[in-house]
Amino acid sequence: MLSCKQATELMSQEQDRPLRLGERIGLRLHAWICSSCANYRRQMDVLRSACRRFGGGGTP
């Protein structure tokens, strides 16, 4: 089982590279159990989406 620190590190790495299957499964399991990390992941998704919209890095 991942710790919160490991989970947040993987969430950050996920922005730069595709995660391996084992990493994705571990991250999903952790986020399913840990509401704080699930919330952190949602916040990262919102920030990434906002940066793409305002930075011209993709479609809305």
Entry summary:
75% of the residues lie in helices and 0% in strands. It is mainly α and 60 residues long.
What can you see in these coordinates?
This protein is mostly helical. The chain has one domain (4-55). Helices cover 75% and strands 0% of the residues. The protein is built from three helices and no strands. It has helices spanning 4-14, 21-33, 35-55. α1 (4-14) crosses α2 (21-33) and α2 packs across α3. The chain is globular.
List keywords for this structure.
globular; 3 helices
Topology:
Elements: H1 4-14, H2 21-33, H3 35-55
Helix pairs in contact: 1-2, 1-3, 2-3
**Which structural class do the helices and strands define?**
mainly alpha
Quick check: average pLDDT? 90
Order of helical and strand elements: HHH
Spans of at least 5 consecutive residues whose pLDDT stays below 50 are none
Strand content: under 5%
